[in-house]
Amino acid sequence: MTRTRRIERRCQLNVEEIWEKVGGATEVDAPDASASCAYASDLLSDVMGHAGEGSALITIQNHLNTIAVCTLVGIEVIVICHGRPVPDDMRAAAEREGVAIVVTPLSQYAASLALSALPPCAR
Question: Is the pTM for the entire model greater than 0.85?
């Protein structure tokens, strides 16, 4: 029997590094925000159950509830895909809660590939 050892990748990306990788724009900046893993989902209950603290959330959900879930889970960076606009109430909540929002023209799959330096969240 061959045994392999899983090598854990350690990586930390700040908001500027994330927007550079996804070719997007920072809609809401949070200077201290960063991500050490990534999670892609549009189902917010799935995010609550599986995304880890300190992850970057890759999604198309551009509404106020997304900020509430990120605050609950401990997510500091949201990557909104397909260039979807950020509503004013979402922007205000993100600023208040210290959650950065990056908007990219990429699909969720392409954004996930662009952020492949981040390991998947393990919860």
Answer: yes
Enumerate residues 6+ apart whose C-beta is below 8 A from 106: 22, 23, 24, 81, 82, 114
Number of domains within the chain: 1
Tokens found for residue 85: 């606009």
What's the number of CA atoms in the CB half-sphere (13 Å) around residue 96? 10
Residue 7 lies in a domain: no
Q: Mind listing the pLDDT tens digit for each residue in 36-86? A: 999 999 999 999 999 989 999 999 999 999 999 999 999 999 999 999 999
* Residue 42 covered by a domain: yes
Give the range of the structural domain holding residue 79, as residue numbers without chain letter.
Answer: 13-114
Q: Does residue 3 sit within a domain?
A: no
Please answer whether residues 48 and 73 qualify as being in contact, where contact means their C-beta atoms are separated by less than 8 angstroms.
Answer: yes
Phi, psi values for residue 51, rounded to 5°: -75, 145
Token pair, residue 106, equals 């990429």
